[in-house]
Design brief:
- The structure is a single chain.
- By secondary structure, the chain is α/β, with parallel strands linked by helices.
- 52% of the residues lie in helices and 12% in strands.
- The protein contains 12 helices and 9 strands.
- It has a 6-stranded mixed beta sheet, sandwiched between helices. A 3-stranded antiparallel beta sheet has the order 7-8-9.
- The protein starts with a helix and ends with a strand.
């Protein structure tokens, strides 16, 4: 029987994402109920048995909207109907740090990690698409981020995998229609109070109108190229074994030197989320533009200081 092109594309993407896993292992799909994650779940249910893998699902109830427990239960029932087992509903308490979007994301990933650990899953599949990647790049541009942030979401990081990063959102909707799945439209995705929703509803469509239909692909391609560059610079920075030698640090390219500074600050106890580009800039000036200035104050009560030809964190 002929398979719809959209469905075939998503199944192929999922299959290629799983081929390195040993038979018998459990893979979970993170399913919100939207078209992207439902199409992902259906593809996983189809492909996992063919690769001799077990397939399950997890849906996270953030508790941020009325009726969210009932929606989570509906999503879980749909996953079970697809043949996924186990299916876990995980409720979380969303904090406030990092804003509403950041706090929800942090709670969600913590929950997904916890469920994967409890169930013994070797991988958790996420339904982010090429459109999500393009939006992420634009949000990073607006924040004035560096190459690492502009490189967007990686296809893999630890147990998380994103098989749909080359798939357009319209394709996931078509795939759901092909197998009679009815996605849930999260109102947060169109709420202009959220930055990503504004990018999705206003900014990216305006760019497509002005510059052409290929803008989302171009942004995703840029992210992939920058990821390669950022990976190479990160590896270079790891080869620097002495982060206190001002003479050696001064000879490095700034992009590498800043990475060494960040790594040293993290090793000294500075929180990754609290260290800003301004902190790194001020520390770098202790190396490249030193005229006897005092120590640089850092989050957590730490300081970076220079004494003669040595940099220290205390």
């Amino acid at each position: 029987m002929k398979v719809e092109p959209a469905l075939a594309a998503i199944r192929l993407a999922v299959r290629e994402c799983l081929t390195d896993l040993p038979s018998g292992e459990l893979v979970l799909a993170a399913v919100s109920g939207g078209a992207d994650s439902l199409a992902l779940a259906a593809a996983l249910a189809h492909e996992a048995p063919r690769l001799e893998l077990r397939a399950g699902a997890v849906t996270v109830d953030h508790g941020l909207q009325d009726g969210s427990p009932e929606r989570a239960a509906d999503v879980a029932a749909t996953c079970a109907d697809l043949g996924l087992d186990p299916v876990v509903v995980e409720s979380v308490a969303v904090g406030h740090a990092g804003g509403p979007e950041g706090a929800a994301r942090e709670a969600r990933y913590a929950a997904l990690n916890d469920v994967a650990t409890r169930t013994g899953a070797v991988a958790v599949l996420l339904g982010h698409t090429l459109d999500d990647q393009a939006e992420t790049v634009l949000l990073s541009l607006a924040r004035g981020s560096g190459a690492r942030s502009l490189s967007g979401m990686p296809p893999r990081r630890e147990r998380f995998r994103r098989p749909l990063l080359a798939i357009r959102r319209v394709t996931t909707n078509e795939a759901c229609q092909a197998v009679d799945l009815v996605p849930w439209a999260d109102p947060h995705n169109s709420d202009p109070a959220f930055a990503r929703a504004r990018v999705r509803q206003q900014v990216l469509p305006a760019m497509v109108d002005a510059l052409g239909d290929g803008i989302p692909e171009a942004l995703a391609r840029t992210a992939a190229l920058l990821r390669d560059d950022a990976d190479a610079l990160d590896e270079w920075a790891k080869t620097v074994t002495d982060a206190t030698d001002v003479g050696a640090l001064s000879e490095l390219p700034s992009a590498v030197r800043k990475r060494v500074i960040r790594n040293a600050a993290f090793a000294a106890g500075v929180s990754a989320g609290a260290l800003t580009a301004s902190h790194v800039h001020d520390i770098e000036r202790l190396i490249t533009h030193w005229h006897g200035q005092g120590a640089v104050s850092l989050p957590g009560g730490l300081v970076a200081d220079r004494s003669y030809d040595r940099l220290s964190f205390r």
